[in-house]
Structure formats: C-alpha cells, structure tokens
Design a protein that fits this description.
It contains eight helices and 13 strands. It has 324 residues and is of the alpha+beta class. The strands form two sheets. Strands 5-13-6-12-11-10-9-7 form an eight-stranded mixed β-sheet, with helices on both faces. Strands 1, 2, 3, 4 and 8 form a five-stranded antiparallel β-sheet that branches. Strand 9 and strand 10 (220-230) form a beta hairpin. The longest helix has 15 residues, at 100-114. It starts with a strand and ends in a 23-residue tail after the last strand.
C-alpha cells in the first residue's frame, strides 16, 4: 500500500486533484469553476479550520482521494456534536481494484476521531454504499426518496388562506441573519443552521442560485422558505425556517408556501420530509407523493450513540447535501 498523506499536513497541487476527479467522474469543469468550488467547500466553510482530505499519490498522479466537510450536528437535547459531511471521494480509474479507497477511508476516520470528531454523515450513491456498510461501520438511516407535489395532482388539502400571505424576498445577509435565529425542528438531530453556515451555504455558493419566500400574517413574519429552481418549472425546497418554535399554524404556512410556488407556474415541487413527522402527513394531504429513490442517508458514529441511527430522530433537507 502506498503512503497515505493528509492534505492539511502535506498539501498537494490542486490541479492534480482536479485531473484525477475529472478522470474518475468523466466530467470536465472550467479550471476557475473547479477551484472556486474547492475554496468554497474546503477553505471558506466557517466550521473548517483546515481542508480535511487524505490522498494517495502514485506515479505523480492522485490515485485515490477522500475529503470531509466539517459540520455541526445539533443533538435533540440542544448540545452540539462535532461532525462532518463525507464528500468528494474517488479512485482514479487506472488505480481501481487495489483497495486504496477503503484503506484511505479507514485511516482518515481514525485521524478524524483522534481530532475530536464524534461522527460523520453522508448521502452515499450505489457505488460507495456497499463498502461503507460492509467495511466502515456505516449505519443506514434511510433511503431518501423525492417527495413531490405535481400541479395536476394537488388535492383539496391545499387551500389558500387569505390570512396568510407568501411573497418573494431577496436572499441577502440580513435575511440570513434572521434565519439563523429561527427554528427548523424540535428535539431531532439536524445540521446546525447558524447564520454563518447559511451565509456560506446559500449566499457564497459559487455554482448555485437560491431564492427565498417569506410567509407572514398581519404583518408578522412567520417563516422563510429557501428554494432552488431548475429547468423551466420545477423547484427544490432547501429548507423552511419558522420564526417561532412549536408554531401551531404550520399547516396554513405550508399551504401558503405551496400555493405561492404553484402560482408562479411551477409544475413540480420537491422536498425531503421525514416520514415520521406531522409535516409529512400534512404534505401528503396536499398531494405530495414519494417518487424515485435519490440517495442512501447514513452515519458513521464514533461515540456509540444508539438513537442517532434511527431516522425518526432526524430532520433533514436538501440543504444538508452537497448535490443540491
């Protein structure tokens, strides 16, 4: 096995990583775009003190590479868990079949644990899921499906209530500051949505454009909704932020949000919503249906928590993935 090196101790030319990434995924990005994404993901992340990446260099090429983005998970009791999102892992096609990737993951996880990381989480594709679960103590939380509302299948549960208004609002730092003091869930594991995280994730993202809605009643703001458009008439809801915890009017707020989006000519609304939540039932009532499986959601826990592997204990949205 060639030597495993850690980027924060032995930096390597980014062009070598990019070239191996392009070979592994059969994709080519403009050099400036790739470098902007690297800087944003692994250097500008407010939870990142250093780029957490490991690699194997062989024949002057990156043979194997694996990186983690630091994140903070909120425990249901309100305490914080030092964690990270598993992302950008690959083996160069010319070095596959040598066991490099598995060993790289094992060694990287040992280092992260020694650095105080308590768990990792990720959204594994079919290529990586087997080895994660078989060899790396990956605990499957759930197969995440695309929960979708189609304009032509809206049910009577989606009724526009004149007391609740939803309109466009500019997604800027002032709005993000307000979101940072909002609530997204009660007593569930979830990725911390601090103002600093939201500014980095939503505003500074070099490749994605996010939009925002605000829902209010009698002039009082009740919720913010961040979403992303793609194609001509489809949207992904990244997250919904409520200004008051335990808001009893969440049904009316959800209805107002969906009505507003549909009024814009949107034909398809997508969201990740926990099957065990009251929200999921309310969205079903409106006409949302589970469609194709999008990813495996799982954790690698270094601390022996039993409840962290139960999907009913989690709140998750598209904002938690590096794909959306």
């Amino acid at each position: 096995m060639p030597e495993i090196k850690y980027f924060w101790e032995n930096p390597v030319d980014l062009s070598l990583i990019r070239e191996a990434w392009e070979a592994a995924f059969s994709r080519v990005l403009p050099v400036s775009t790739w470098e902007k994404v690297w800087i944003w993901r692994f250097q500008a992340n407010p939870a990142c003190e250093q780029a957490l990446a490991a690699y194997i260099l062989e024949d002057d090429r990156i043979a194997c590479f694996y990186a983690v983005s630091p994140m903070t998970i909120m425990h249901p009791d309100g305490s914080k868990i030092k964690s990270g999102l598993m992302n950008m892992g690959f083996t160069h096609p010319e070095f596959q079949g040598r066991g490099y990737y598995l060993e790289l993951n094992v060694r990287m996880h040992e280092r992260l644990k020694s650095m105080g990381y308590e768990c990792l989480f990720g959204f594994a594709n079919h290529n990586s899921h087997y080895s994660y679960r078989k060899h790396l103590n990956w605990q499957d939380l759930s197969l995440l499906t695309n929960f979708q509302l189609l304009k032509n299948t809206v049910k009577s549960g989606l009724l526009k209530n004149g007391e609740y208004q939803t309109d466009d609002i500019e997604l800027n730092e002032t709005v993000v500051d307000s979101m940072g003091s909002c609530f997204v869930t009660e007593e569930r594991y979830h990725i911390q949505r601090s103002a600093a995280f939201l500014k980095w994730r939503l505003i500074e993202n070099p490749t994605q454009k996010y939009l925002c809605l605000t829902t209010f009643r009698s002039g009082d703001i009740l919720a913010y909704t961040v979403y992303k458009r793609f194609g001509r008439n489809e949207v992904d809801i990244m997250e919904i932020f409520y200004t008051t915890i335990g808001l009893t009017a969440y049904k009316e707020i959800l209805a107002s949000i969906m009505s507003c989006l549909l009024s814009k000519g949107i034909n398809s609304i997508n969201i990740w919503s926990n099957l065990f939540s009251d929200e999921h039932l309310e969205l079903e009532k409106m006409g949302f249906r589970e469609h194709n499986v999008s990813t495996h959601f799982g954790v690698i826990d270094f601390s022996g928590r039993k409840d962290i592997s139960l999907i009913s204990n989690w709140h998750y949205r598209f904002i938690d993935s590096d794909v959306y």
